[in-house]
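**Sequence with structure:**
===
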Amino acid sequence: MGEGFQFIDIILFAMIAAFLILRLRSALGRHKEDGLPRQDPFTPDNRPGQSPDQRPQASEENIIPLPGQADSFVKPEDGAAAEAETVPETPLDAELNKIQSVSPDFDRQEFMVGARTAFEMIVQAFAEGNADLLDSLLSDEVYSNFLQAIRSREANNQTLENTLVRIVSADMIEAYIDNHKAFITVKIVSEQVNITRDEEGEIVDGDGAHITEITDIWTFCRDIKSRDPNWELVATRSLD
């Protein structure tokens, strides 16, 4: 008789456990529904069984501009093209484009590298009195002016010591074509130390402890009909 009651207790506990399991499942739900993966709410509709062609596609009719933007809304690629078309061309750009149209090998960046290098060479050659090097880089008129200054310095038994500390900036400020010659003017700002000494080595001009910022305006020229790709310095002036 005791064994019969024990068997009934086991059945009763089993029914209670089954009831609790069913209630828990109804309250918590399943981790997956029907074996399908959960959909990420931050991605487009990627329901299984749909091919890419069957999925909803974005169209211009589906794009709704924000209030106040209806008149100005454009697609990104159209906006980029419109912005490129509205960038104004400066007079300098226009003239440089003309030079490039008649001289396809002309490159702005390469020209500026050459202009900075020429500046360093010419400044050093003038200080050293290297007339041969100056003759290869300058026009006849500019060379004559430089040579006159060198000869005057030599006549007074003076020497020029120049230290080009650095080129602060170098920028094109003007360009044009005159007949078959292209002209480009460059503004060069540099820091230099210049000392002039007499025959006894005494300083007669300048200060070795002082760095001077000098602004030079140099114009370079090239014959665009010539096979010679080199530019020469045809005009100089200083703002200091």
